[in-house]
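Input (structure):
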């Protein structure tokens, strides 16, 4: 029996987006502009989850931003937030 997906609604630049945690193949996350949906692999935790969520949020907000800029920003933001001990409730410490 498949697991239920976790879905949240957020507003990005005044537009309603869904964030769905589901099992993805061959990627950590994806941003679908047509359906305004961000999908994040449900197996991610800790810094990987934080980095991927930031990465996809940046794509949603600034779709024309070059991929390298998205990667650099999400890596820096995740590193700083993780160093400041931001964690998802229930995640184990893995530093």
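Output (sequence):
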């Amino acid at each position: 029996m498949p697991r239920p997906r976790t879905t949240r609604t957020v507003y990005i630049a005044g537009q309603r987006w869904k964030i769905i945690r589901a099992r993805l193949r061959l990627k950590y996350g994806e941003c679908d502009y047509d359906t305004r949906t961000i999908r994040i692999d449900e197996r991610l935790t800790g810094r990987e989850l934080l980095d991927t969520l930031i990465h996809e949020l940046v794509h949603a907000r600034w779709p024309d931003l070059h991929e390298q800029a998205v990667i650099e920003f999400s890596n820096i933001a995740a590193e700083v937030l993780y160093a400041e001990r931001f964690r998802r409730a229930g995640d184990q410490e893995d530093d």
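Notes: Helices lie at 46-61, 67-83. Residues 4 and 17 are 19 Å apart (CA to CA).
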